[in-house]
Amino acid sequence: MAENICYGVLAGGKSSRMGKSKALLKYSEEENFAEHMLSVGKAFPQKLFSINNDIKSYEGCRIMCPIVIDKREEFGPVEGIFQLLTSCEHPYLLTVATDMPFVTPEFLEAFAGALKGDEDALVLTTGEGNLQPLCSIYSRNCLGPLSEMRAEGIGKIRALFDKVNTRYIDVKELGFDESIVRNINTPEEYEKYFGAFEEKKLNHFDENGNAVMVDVTDKDVTERVAVARGSIFVSREVFEAIKNGTAKKGDVLGVARVAGIMATKRTSEFIPMCHPLMLTKASVDFEMHEEALRVDAICTAKLKGRTGVEMEALTGASVALLTIYDMCKAMDRGMEIGDIYLVKKDGGKSGLYENTGNSRNKTQR
User: Fold this and answer.
1) Residue 222 and residue 227: Cα distance in Å, rounded?
2) Residues of the chain with CATH 3.30.70.640
3) Between 360 and 268, where is the model more confident?
4) One of 54, 177, 285, 326 is an active-site residue; which one?
5) In this structure, which topology does domain 2-192 adopt according to CATH?
């Protein structure tokens, strides 16, 4: 359905609480919020960027798409969505606000796929009565009612939903947590999620470009945990052998579990700039999915220390899957390993991270 949808980013203007446009906030060392939000919509055939009249503020930004100017700023989102729809070359427009930096391509794909084609507006909700009109889908049929609202001085976008055929869909129906559309509204929120930029730099290199292991001497000792998972797709013969314990090499999952745990303890020998760590916990668990002929490996690593254990968890999951392959390759050399990713981490300055974007259908072939 994405081929029929234009992707529009609503930037608006200066935020009173931030002191500047949130579109210009730093997302990473390479991107600001505006640039990041446009890159997230790469799957859509047309992209548009809506701002107020302060176009000079965006000089130097890599806005690689047409910029749409809000001609009547006093109408806020009504004006932004109206102007985007006016410039839209496709039947539908999917909008996101520039201060929704946790939105992912996977989420947008799921949202676009939920469109039936007979709605004038598909409005996202996060809980009963909690609408997300700035992250919704609008058809060009909304242009007339929006024009009338502008003429009548109505600046609340929610008034549109009583005028057109509107369907509501909760974010959890798409397989995502509400945090996927979390807004960054205050300096405190920005600091919480994006303040630790020093940790996001390429700090495995010194000022001369030489590879170094990061100095963590001055970091606080905190409890740190990480969970990673990955999958291996196998044949029916292999799945049954693993399930029934009939593989010629023995207990496949038992050996894979030990291999994964051993790998977590030796991660620094595989990954050059990883610190040698004294783990306090390492575990590997498995999930069998018979219909998909898939085995998932979930590795958890934990310690009290000055650096995180993400690489240990990822290494443990990877080696457990490789061990399954080794144990069963005589039956099927076409097994496929993939979808290895960090599920969550906690501890340290950056606190909790949860990979909500990878939770939906990540392991479908």
Assistant:
1) 17
2) 207-358
3) 268
4) 326
5) Spore Coat Polysaccharide Biosynthesis Protein SpsA; Chain A (3.90.550)
